[in-house]
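Structure first, sequence second, as always.
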């Protein structure tokens, strides 16, 4: 595995750990942050796979666009598209006034990020 790929995976793991930590917080949990970090984790796992394959992805947070770049080499990942579309909204939806995530939404977001992690690590040959 390329060194930069490993760094992307470490960053993805860090975001997922932060999302889990917010879900477990007894005092002042930040469910908005859990959703955001779930999205960030999925994004970084996608970028890790792109990096490992030498595919250029630029500076984007759009999970659907990142999936499009992987579609030709990894057609099975298309099954993640509905999950990624939901997570995609969490990059901005709860970060600003007007909307707040409930615990159940945050739990679903983190579960979706875990699914993305499992599927992408399988593509790396890690289970």
């Amino acid at each position: 595995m390329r060194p930069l790929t490993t760094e992307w995976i470490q960053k993805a793991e860090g975001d997922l750990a932060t999302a889990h930590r917010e879900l477990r917080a007894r005092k002042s949990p930040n469910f908005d942050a859990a959703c955001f970090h779930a999205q960030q984790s999925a994004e970084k796992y996608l970028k890790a796979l792109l990096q490992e394959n030498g595919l250029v992805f630029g500076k984007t947070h759009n999970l659907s666009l990142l999936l499009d770049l992987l579609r030709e080499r990894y057609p099975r990942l298309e099954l993640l598209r509905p999950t990624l579309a939901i997570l995609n909204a969490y990059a901005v939806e709860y970060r600003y006034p007007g909307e707040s995530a409930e615990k159940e939404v945050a739990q679903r977001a983190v579960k979706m990020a875990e699914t993305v992690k499992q599927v992408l690590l399988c593509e790396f040959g890690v289970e």
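Margin note: The CA atoms of residues 63 and 88 lie 6 Å apart.
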